[in-house]
Amino acid sequence: MENIQSKVVIITGASSGIGEATAKLLAQNGAKVVLAARREERLHAIVDEIKQGGGDAYSVKADVVSAEDMQKLAKFTLNTYGRIDVLINNAGIMPNSNLSELRVEEWDQMIDVNIKGVLYGIAAVLPTMREQQSGHIINLSSTAGYHVAPRSAVYSATKFAVRAISEGLRLEESPTSHIRSTVIAPGLTRTELLDRITSPEVQAIANKIKDMGISPYSIAKAIAFAINEPDDTLISEIMVRPTVL
Predict the structure, then answer these.
(1) Model's pTM, two decimal places?
(2) How confident is the model at residue 148, as a pLDDT?
(3) b/e for 40-58, b at 16 or more Cβ within 10 A?
(4) Strand partners, 138
(5) Which of 81, 120, 155, 217 is catalytic?
(6) Separation between Cα atoms, residue 4 and residue 224, nearest integer Å
(7) SS (HEC) of the chain
(8) CDD domains annotated for this entry (predicted)?
Protein backbone atom coordinates (compact mmCIF):
# COMPACT_ATOMS: atom_id res chain seq x y z
CA MET A 1 0.00 0.00 0.00
CA GLU A 2 2.62 2.50 -1.09
CA ASN A 3 0.16 5.37 -1.63
CA ILE A 4 -0.88 5.26 2.03
CA GLN A 5 2.64 5.80 3.33
CA SER A 6 3.19 9.18 4.99
CA LYS A 7 -0.35 10.40 4.33
CA VAL A 8 -1.83 12.45 7.17
CA VAL A 9 -5.22 11.01 8.09
CA ILE A 10 -7.86 12.32 10.53
CA ILE A 11 -10.33 9.71 11.78
CA THR A 12 -13.44 10.58 13.79
CA GLY A 13 -15.17 8.06 15.99
CA ALA A 14 -11.77 6.46 16.45
CA SER A 15 -12.14 5.15 20.00
CA SER A 16 -13.65 1.81 18.93
CA GLY A 17 -15.03 -0.25 16.08
CA ILE A 18 -14.38 0.81 12.49
CA GLY A 19 -12.48 3.94 13.51
CA GLU A 20 -10.09 2.05 15.75
CA ALA A 21 -9.55 -0.71 13.20
CA THR A 22 -8.91 1.82 10.44
CA ALA A 23 -6.44 3.80 12.54
CA LYS A 24 -4.44 0.68 13.32
CA LEU A 25 -4.46 -0.62 9.73
CA LEU A 26 -3.45 2.71 8.18
CA ALA A 27 -0.71 3.26 10.76
CA GLN A 28 0.65 -0.23 10.05
CA ASN A 29 0.93 0.83 6.42
CA GLY A 30 2.83 4.03 7.12
CA ALA A 31 0.11 6.66 7.50
CA LYS A 32 0.30 9.39 10.14
CA VAL A 33 -3.03 9.15 11.96
CA VAL A 34 -4.86 11.61 14.19
CA LEU A 35 -7.59 9.91 16.18
CA ALA A 36 -10.61 11.89 17.37
CA ALA A 37 -13.47 10.93 19.67
CA ARG A 38 -14.99 11.91 23.01
CA ARG A 39 -13.46 9.05 25.06
CA GLU A 40 -10.03 10.47 25.73
CA GLU A 41 -8.66 7.59 27.82
CA ARG A 42 -9.64 5.08 25.15
CA LEU A 43 -7.95 7.19 22.48
CA HIS A 44 -4.75 7.34 24.53
CA ALA A 45 -4.70 3.54 24.82
CA ILE A 46 -5.10 3.07 21.06
CA VAL A 47 -2.42 5.66 20.28
CA ASP A 48 -0.03 3.96 22.70
CA GLU A 49 -0.66 0.62 21.00
CA ILE A 50 -0.01 2.13 17.57
CA LYS A 51 3.21 3.77 18.73
CA GLN A 52 4.43 0.57 20.36
CA GLY A 53 4.02 -1.08 16.96
CA GLY A 54 6.16 1.62 15.33
CA GLY A 55 3.32 3.74 14.01
CA ASP A 56 2.88 7.52 14.05
CA ALA A 57 -0.28 8.62 15.88
CA TYR A 58 -1.82 11.36 17.99
CA SER A 59 -5.23 11.80 19.54
CA VAL A 60 -7.53 14.76 20.08
CA LYS A 61 -10.63 14.75 22.24
CA ALA A 62 -13.36 16.09 19.97
CA ASP A 63 -17.11 15.85 19.54
CA VAL A 64 -18.25 15.94 15.92
CA VAL A 65 -21.43 17.82 16.84
CA SER A 66 -19.23 20.78 17.75
CA ALA A 67 -18.03 22.80 14.76
CA GLU A 68 -15.48 24.41 17.08
CA ASP A 69 -14.07 21.02 18.12
CA MET A 70 -13.68 20.00 14.50
CA GLN A 71 -11.88 23.23 13.66
CA LYS A 72 -9.50 22.64 16.58
CA LEU A 73 -8.92 19.08 15.37
CA ALA A 74 -7.96 20.29 11.90
CA LYS A 75 -5.73 23.02 13.35
CA PHE A 76 -3.95 20.52 15.60
CA THR A 77 -3.31 18.24 12.62
CA LEU A 78 -1.94 21.10 10.53
CA ASN A 79 0.28 22.31 13.36
CA THR A 80 1.60 18.79 13.92
CA TYR A 81 2.09 17.55 10.35
CA GLY A 82 1.75 20.59 8.10
CA ARG A 83 -0.98 19.13 5.91
CA ILE A 84 -4.19 17.08 5.88
CA ASP A 85 -4.41 14.39 3.23
CA VAL A 86 -7.46 12.40 4.32
CA LEU A 87 -10.49 12.93 6.55
CA ILE A 88 -12.50 9.86 7.51
CA ASN A 89 -15.91 10.94 8.80
CA ASN A 90 -16.61 7.75 10.70
CA ALA A 91 -18.48 8.87 13.84
CA GLY A 92 -22.12 7.80 13.85
CA ILE A 93 -24.98 6.57 16.02
CA MET A 94 -27.98 4.31 15.32
CA PRO A 95 -30.62 4.30 18.08
CA ASN A 96 -33.32 2.89 15.80
CA SER A 97 -36.97 2.77 16.80
CA ASN A 98 -40.48 2.88 15.37
CA LEU A 99 -41.51 6.40 14.42
CA SER A 100 -44.61 5.90 16.57
CA GLU A 101 -42.39 5.69 19.67
CA LEU A 102 -41.70 9.43 19.17
CA ARG A 103 -38.11 9.28 20.40
CA VAL A 104 -37.55 12.84 19.21
CA GLU A 105 -34.39 13.38 21.23
CA GLU A 106 -32.79 10.36 19.56
CA TRP A 107 -33.85 11.66 16.13
CA ASP A 108 -32.12 14.93 16.94
CA GLN A 109 -28.98 13.11 18.08
CA MET A 110 -28.78 11.11 14.84
CA ILE A 111 -29.20 14.23 12.74
CA ASP A 112 -26.55 16.05 14.76
CA VAL A 113 -23.94 13.28 14.71
CA ASN A 114 -24.61 11.59 11.39
CA ILE A 115 -25.30 14.65 9.22
CA LYS A 116 -24.01 17.77 10.95
CA GLY A 117 -20.93 15.88 12.15
CA VAL A 118 -20.03 15.04 8.55
CA LEU A 119 -20.59 18.64 7.44
CA TYR A 120 -18.54 20.06 10.32
CA GLY A 121 -15.70 17.70 9.42
CA ILE A 122 -15.80 18.77 5.80
CA ALA A 123 -15.87 22.45 6.80
CA ALA A 124 -12.82 21.95 9.01
CA VAL A 125 -10.58 20.43 6.32
CA LEU A 126 -11.88 21.73 3.01
CA PRO A 127 -10.03 25.09 2.99
CA THR A 128 -6.72 23.31 3.61
CA MET A 129 -7.37 20.68 0.96
CA ARG A 130 -8.35 23.36 -1.57
CA GLU A 131 -5.16 25.25 -0.84
CA GLN A 132 -3.14 22.04 -1.23
CA GLN A 133 -5.08 21.20 -4.42
CA SER A 134 -5.35 17.68 -3.08
CA GLY A 135 -7.15 15.68 -0.45
CA HIS A 136 -9.56 12.85 0.17
CA ILE A 137 -12.75 12.91 2.25
CA ILE A 138 -14.24 9.53 3.12
CA ASN A 139 -17.73 9.50 4.59
CA LEU A 140 -19.25 6.47 6.27
CA SER A 141 -22.79 5.86 5.10
CA SER A 142 -24.50 2.46 5.48
CA THR A 143 -26.46 -0.13 3.55
CA ALA A 144 -29.36 1.69 5.27
CA GLY A 145 -28.42 4.66 3.10
CA TYR A 146 -29.68 2.70 0.08
CA HIS A 147 -32.67 0.87 1.53
CA VAL A 148 -35.16 1.85 4.21
CA ALA A 149 -36.33 -0.83 6.63
CA PRO A 150 -38.97 -0.64 9.34
CA ARG A 151 -37.67 1.04 12.50
CA SER A 152 -34.75 2.65 10.65
CA ALA A 153 -36.44 5.61 8.95
CA VAL A 154 -34.49 8.39 10.67
CA TYR A 155 -31.16 6.54 10.60
CA SER A 156 -31.66 5.77 6.91
CA ALA A 157 -32.51 9.41 6.26
CA THR A 158 -29.21 10.49 7.79
CA LYS A 159 -27.26 7.96 5.76
CA PHE A 160 -29.04 8.90 2.52
CA ALA A 161 -27.97 12.45 3.37
CA VAL A 162 -24.35 11.37 3.75
CA ARG A 163 -24.46 9.98 0.22
CA ALA A 164 -25.98 13.20 -1.13
CA ILE A 165 -23.36 15.35 0.63
CA SER A 166 -20.57 13.13 -0.65
CA GLU A 167 -21.77 13.26 -4.23
CA GLY A 168 -22.19 17.03 -4.07
CA LEU A 169 -18.66 17.33 -2.73
CA ARG A 170 -17.34 15.20 -5.58
CA LEU A 171 -19.12 17.24 -8.21
CA GLU A 172 -17.97 20.56 -6.78
CA GLU A 173 -14.39 19.80 -5.80
CA SER A 174 -12.93 16.89 -7.75
CA PRO A 175 -12.71 18.63 -11.17
CA THR A 176 -10.99 21.77 -9.90
CA SER A 177 -9.42 21.08 -6.49
CA HIS A 178 -8.60 17.41 -7.13
CA ILE A 179 -10.26 16.48 -3.83
CA ARG A 180 -11.59 12.95 -3.86
CA SER A 181 -14.90 12.02 -2.19
CA THR A 182 -15.67 8.44 -1.23
CA VAL A 183 -18.67 6.79 0.41
CA ILE A 184 -18.12 3.60 2.40
CA ALA A 185 -21.38 1.78 3.15
CA PRO A 186 -21.04 -0.98 5.76
CA GLY A 187 -23.68 -3.56 6.40
CA LEU A 188 -24.02 -5.12 9.85
CA THR A 189 -20.63 -4.84 11.55
CA ARG A 190 -19.51 -5.95 15.00
CA THR A 191 -19.19 -2.55 16.65
CA GLU A 192 -20.82 -0.62 19.50
CA LEU A 193 -23.44 0.84 17.16
CA LEU A 194 -26.21 -1.43 18.43
CA ASP A 195 -25.48 -0.65 22.07
CA ARG A 196 -27.26 2.72 21.94
CA ILE A 197 -30.62 1.28 20.95
CA THR A 198 -33.19 2.02 23.66
CA SER A 199 -36.32 0.67 21.95
CA PRO A 200 -37.06 -2.77 23.52
CA GLU A 201 -38.49 -4.10 20.26
CA VAL A 202 -35.49 -3.04 18.21
CA GLN A 203 -33.02 -4.21 20.85
CA ALA A 204 -34.58 -7.68 20.76
CA ILE A 205 -34.09 -7.79 16.99
CA ALA A 206 -30.51 -6.52 17.31
CA ASN A 207 -29.67 -9.22 19.87
CA LYS A 208 -30.68 -11.88 17.36
CA ILE A 209 -28.52 -10.64 14.50
CA LYS A 210 -25.53 -8.88 16.09
CA ASP A 211 -23.32 -11.99 15.94
CA MET A 212 -23.85 -12.13 12.17
CA GLY A 213 -21.92 -8.89 11.74
CA ILE A 214 -18.56 -8.76 10.02
CA SER A 215 -15.31 -7.59 11.55
CA PRO A 216 -14.64 -3.83 11.56
CA TYR A 217 -11.33 -4.71 9.89
CA SER A 218 -13.29 -5.67 6.78
CA ILE A 219 -14.49 -2.08 6.57
CA ALA A 220 -11.02 -0.76 7.41
CA LYS A 221 -9.60 -2.69 4.46
CA ALA A 222 -12.17 -1.11 2.13
CA ILE A 223 -11.19 2.34 3.39
CA ALA A 224 -7.51 1.55 2.91
CA PHE A 225 -8.20 0.37 -0.64
CA ALA A 226 -9.88 3.68 -1.52
CA ILE A 227 -7.03 5.72 -0.04
CA ASN A 228 -4.35 3.64 -1.73
CA GLU A 229 -5.63 4.22 -5.25
CA PRO A 230 -3.48 6.70 -7.24
CA ASP A 231 -4.52 10.34 -7.17
CA ASP A 232 -6.05 10.14 -10.65
CA THR A 233 -8.46 7.40 -9.53
CA LEU A 234 -11.52 8.10 -7.40
CA ILE A 235 -13.41 5.27 -5.72
CA SER A 236 -16.86 6.83 -5.36
CA GLU A 237 -18.67 4.14 -3.36
CA ILE A 238 -17.93 0.82 -1.69
CA MET A 239 -20.57 -1.36 -0.01
CA VAL A 240 -19.38 -4.11 2.33
CA ARG A 241 -21.87 -6.44 3.97
CA PRO A 242 -22.05 -9.86 5.64
CA THR A 243 -22.42 -12.76 3.27
CA VAL A 244 -25.34 -14.18 5.29
CA LEU A 245 -27.48 -11.02 5.34
Answers:
(1) 0.97
(2) 98
(3) eebbeebbeebeeeebbbb
(4) 88, 182
(5) 155
(6) 8
(7) CCCCCCCEEEEECCCCHHHHHHHHHHHHCCCEEEEEECCHHHHHHHHHHHHHCCCEEEEEECCCCCHHHHHHHHHHHHHHHCCCCEEEECCCCCCCCCHHHCCHHHHHHHHHHHHHHHHHHHHHHHHHHHHHCCEEEEEECCHHHCCCCCCCHHHHHHHHHHHHHHHHHHHHHHHHHCEEEEEEEECCECCCHHHHCCCHHHHHHHHHHHHHCECHHHHHHHHHHHHHCCCCCCCCEEEECCCCC
(8) SDR_c
Confidence class of residue 41 from pLDDT cuts 50, 70 and 90? very high
* Dist. CA 221–CA 150, nearest whole Å: 30
Tell me, yes or no, if 155 is annotated catalytic. yes
